[in-house]
Amino acid sequence: MSIDTPAGGTTTAARPTPLRGPGRRRARAGLTVLAIVLSVLSVFPVLWLITSAIKPREAVTDGKLLPEDVTWENFRYVLTEVAFDRWLWNSFFTAAIITILALFFHSMAAYALARLRFPGRDGIFVVIFSTLLITPPVILIPLFIVVREMGMLDSYAALIIPPLFNAFGIFLLRQFYLGIPRELEEAAIADGAGYWRIYWSIILPLSRPILAALSVFFFLANWNAFAWPLVATSSENLTVTQVGIASFTTQYGSNWNYILAAAVVAVIPMLMLFLFFQRQMVESIKTSGLK
Prior knowledge:
The protein is an all-alpha fold. About 65% of the residues lie in helices and about 5% in strands. The chain is built from 13 helices and four strands. It has a two-stranded antiparallel ribbon. Strands 3-4 form a two-stranded antiparallel sheet. β3 and β4 (about 255) form a beta hairpin. α2 crosses α13, α3 (about 85-115) crosses α7 (about 165-180) and α4 (about 120-130) crosses α7 (about 165-180). The radius of gyration is 25 Å and the shape is globular. The protein starts with a strand and ends with a helix. Residues about 1-10 have low confidence and may be disordered.
């Protein structure tokens, strides 16, 4: 890359010359090959999971991608011999309630931090944002003590209330709200609308793409939750899917055929949710500037 020196003494970096002809075609072919390789590497674990789930127990760890013998016994055992439907319901119920409440509270907090003016607003946002630097294992024991002292252990409240706060959701919504034209609020205020009316009738309808994307993120995170449900609950009626799948691991070994079959069943709702909200997720990432 060359640097031009204009007469005024300042330096300006020259723009790189775009590739043309055979060079451009080689670059495009190289990127295509790289994309194909990365796609195959990304899909391979999923293919291995599905093919291993239909192998007999003695062949599930043979290292071969394609099974020599196919059996559906693994799925029959998971769906009929254990309380897998109860595990799925507990995961769905807690993830859905957390998603709905988190979107409601996070959108109100983000609206206040982005559009309202009050003393300490920027400081509050910095404190909330700084919690992103704290990893969940660090607060696991203190959170357990707090929940125990409040008498919520081994209950749905223990599964739902602690995961409600998520600084990532507040941050993403605040960035989205900063891009909404202020003229919309000024016109609503001129018509006599208050803050609640502006939030409910203007801000929330405009937030549908980002709320749809966050709903997928929140639901996926809580559907796959393992550490906190394992610590906070001990009753079999409150077992979630990930903890239930881990129960296939015994003191003397792991029943990988059942674990993989249960994992295939557990991933189906998430795959359907992602395909349904895929367009909204891409649109929200574009509008919020998330990289």
